[in-house]
Amino acid sequence: MELLMSLVIGIMFAVSIYLMLARSMLRVVLGTVLISHAANLMLINAGLLKRGAPPFVTGDKNLAVVDPIPQALILTAIVIAFGVTAFLLVMAYRGYQELGSDDLSELRGVEDEH
Amino acid sequence: MAVLAPFALAVLVPFLYPALGRRIGWLVALLPFSLFVKYLSLIPPIMQGEPIFINQAWIPSMGINLTIYLDGLSLLFSLLITGIGTIITVYSISYLGAEEALGNFYVYILLFMGAMLGTVQSSNLVTLYVFWELTSISSFLLIGFWFHREESKYGALKSMLITVFGGLAMIAGFLFLYLITGTFEIREIVAQAGKVPGSIYYLPALVLILLGAFTKSAQFPFHIWLPNAMEAPTPISAYLHSATMVKAGIYLMARMTPVLGGTLEWFYILSFVGMITLVYGSFMAIRQSDLKAMLAFSTISQLGLITFLLGINTKLAVAAAVFHILNHATFKGSMFLVVGIVDHETGTRQVDRLGGLARLFPITALVMMLASAASAGLPPFNAFISKEMFFEATLHAGGAPFTAWLFPAAAVVGSIFTFVYSAVMALKVFFGPLQAGEGHGHGSHHTHDVSPTYAVTHGHDAPERAHGHRGHDTHGSDHGSGHHDHEAGHGHGGGHHGDPWGMVLPALALASLTLIIGLFPGLVEYSLVLPAASGAWGSAVKIPHLALWHGFNPPLFMSAVVVLLGLLGYRYFYRLRDVVESVQNARFNLNVLYDRGVDGLVKGARWLTDIQMTGYLRDYLVFISLFFIAAVGYTVWAKNGLKFTGMDLAPVSVYEYVLAGVMVVATLAVLWMPNRLAAILSLGVVGMGVTLMFILFRAPDLALTQLIVEAVSLAMFLLVFAHLPELKKEIVSRSEKAINAVVAVASGTLITMLLISGNATRLFDPISRYYVENSYKLGGGDNIVNVILVDFRGYDTMGEITVVAVAAFSVYALVKLRPGKGGKQR
């Protein structure tokens, strides 16, 4: 399972990086969402998969549970990624409204700062 | 802890200055004076070989301590710093008018004093380095004291760049010493000195430490900063750039003699660099028309002389070196102070505009006579004794056969030039027809009865002083014509002034030492010179008594040659100057090299920044990804980290294969979908796939959260994309696309490989056991993930909530707040 997941995660990373390298703001946002999915899967994959019950405390001392730490990390990450996505989306929307373009190569900062 | 006293006073000065005004100088002068008295009182114990040692732990875990160690060598320097510091401070009170930024001035000078004392008293190389750089910084501030002048800024930056470059090399050298000996404490390094020369780190340590010493002590070819440092107020030039700071490099070499000295490398590097600096400096001094520039080059040459002596590295040479450190401080300090008086009173420092000043300033003339006689090496002045010792040392230098004639010859040649410029400073400026800098408007070049070539070259004076090509006119006519506006209010015609006592008396006090030490060398022999020489040599030094008369011997003969040829040189001064002028090859010019170097550095830095900071998000991501691939990939390859064997795998069921396949397809679909709705929906499929994965992987909380987030995200995407333009076909060049693809695929591949080899390499047990066992006991909850989030790592969760809150506010602000609430857009 871990081997399979490693392949899936690698593909997700490659696609998300390719999306983020694009010029369209829309693709960049899609890329950030995808890369956070990939990163979350990477975390849970690193803690080994399916080695016990869900991480709850039960009366049975001998019952193995899966590693809870990646899950705690991912829970935090999901929420933060959501916040970031929301922010990026609104920024893209407002940027397009104000500047009339969602092409990043046209939205380059100050022309020459020095 | 007397070292810290100047810093303490420096902190107080800004508060006292408004109340005391100009009188603050007297208060400041009190500090070096009382320290001077204190150090005088330490002479007796140190004479008896009982150094003072104070240890204050600073960063003991790294062997870095504030260790104060006061032996003969440190004491000599401490006395110079505080003694001359007192004289300079008193002199400055008259030199600087009340309209100057006196508060700054005294803060800087106290800062320097403390830093310099720290440098010569630290027994720990790291603390020494810290104080050393602090002297560079205070020197920078003082050279740039008149910061509205371009030349001051240029000179300050130049001195800073060169000395700090040397300082950095020096600390690297110290680290090599640390590698050899395992300690930063100088005394412990000296105790293990035997280990040093044989080590493979010896040569790098030597070269790097000498780089520090040479840049600081203005040795050829690093001397170029010193003439530009003359933009500082003259008392500062006298103090930092002649008497004390530039001798920090000399101090370091003397201090390191027991550790690094005694080898052929030491002998040849030091003696040749010193010899070249001596001859070159004195040679260049002659062709300067500005008195201060002349003094700058003479200082360079005298520092070369001392380096030369340290390179020869016999007991006599080391004793002569420390004796000459003292003597040079007395006579060169006085000469600077006199030039300061001349500049202050007449408004010019041009040799050719000055003459016969003895009639106006008799006592100033007397000071100059004393000091320059000592500088020229005439009996019965102190420098005569040290110069004879220098000649004697060059005669018995050892080394290859050719040094037996080369060293004495170089010593004599250097001394002849020294004689000539000393004579010019005393006789030309103070005797002959009266000229007090009158008639110095722009372009009114003073003509004189000597060769016409000189008059021509005079016009574009001094490429050696570096500003010519920068469009600054270094010519003397600048001085006095509003350029030295700090002197506004002082008569430039001179004539009716008389000696300015506030400046003459300190100078006289310093200059009289040249005669006193010359006549009674016993005063300093046992109290200062021998203890200092012993400190530098590493063990007790015995030499023949210091005395003016040693009988008819080769050094006396050499002195006679110097005086005779020197008189001849003075007689034909202008002709000599022409020769020097024509020898000077304008094309080969170290200053041009420096300027180009600095220019190139700035341009190079800009170019390097420009290729990285393109302003395109895509470029930054490419750089980040490439760096990630290179750094991580290289590490994996170099450490042989890639392993595929011994993986710990869970079984895969059929529907898991199907799910994984669906996710891959959906992921690729995000990439290839031609319209935005399809792309967003594909992303939603990936999200739902992730949710299913979480269920499979026994993470119910994650699955729930992901499900909710996914639903909301999808709605948000659709909402926003309704307002965004349709996805366009990316119009990018093929090569850009190819690069993007390569970077993306390489990153993905590397991630996959990392995950596989991470799975195959388990170095330690998971740390989760603690949470599993204590979730209920300490957190009181069954759901371990939740207990971690709200209890064990509660603060992290608070941070997370904060991020979400900030994002929410930002979203709100972006949507609701519009610039110019006039309502054009809404």
Q: Give the neighbour order of strands across the main sheet of chain B.
A: 1-2
- Biggest sheet descriptor of chain A: none
Oligomer: heterodimer
Q: What is the overall silhouette of chain A?
A: elongated
Structural class of chain B: mainly alpha
**Strand element count of chain B:** 4
Mean pLDDT over the full residue set of chain B: 83
Q: Report how far apart the termini of chain B are.
A: 70 Å
Q: Count helical runs of chain A.
A: 3
Instruction: Catalogue the unreliable spans of chain B.
Output: 439-496
User: Percent of residues of chain A in helical segments?
Assistant: 55-70%
Q: Estimate percent helicity of chain B.
A: 55-70%
Radius of gyration of chain B over all CA atoms, rounded: 36 Å
Domain module tally of chain A: 1
Output the structural class of chain A.
Answer: mainly alpha
Task: Name the average pLDDT of chain A.
Answer: 86
Rg for CA atoms of chain A: 19 Å
What does this 3D model show about the protein?
The complex is a heterodimer of chains A (114) and B (826). Chain A has 114 residues and is mainly alpha-helical. Chain A contains three helices and no strands. Helices cover 64% and strands 0% of the residues of chain A. Chain A is elongated, with a radius of gyration of 19 Å. The N and C termini of chain A lie far apart (54 Å). Chain B is mostly helical and 826 residues long. Among the domains of chain B are: 265-434 and 500-523 and 550-571, no CATH class; 616-791, NADH-ubiquinone/plastoquinone oxidoreductase chain 6, subunit NuoJ (Four Helix Bundle (Hemerythrin (Met), subunit A), Up-down Bundle), CATH 1.20.120.1200. In chain B, α17 packs across α20. Classes of the chains: A mainly alpha (114), B mainly alpha (826).
Core attributes:
heterodimer, A: 114 residues, mainly alpha, B: 826 residues, Four Helix Bundle (Hemerythrin (Met), subunit A), 32 helices, 4 strands, 69% helix, elongated
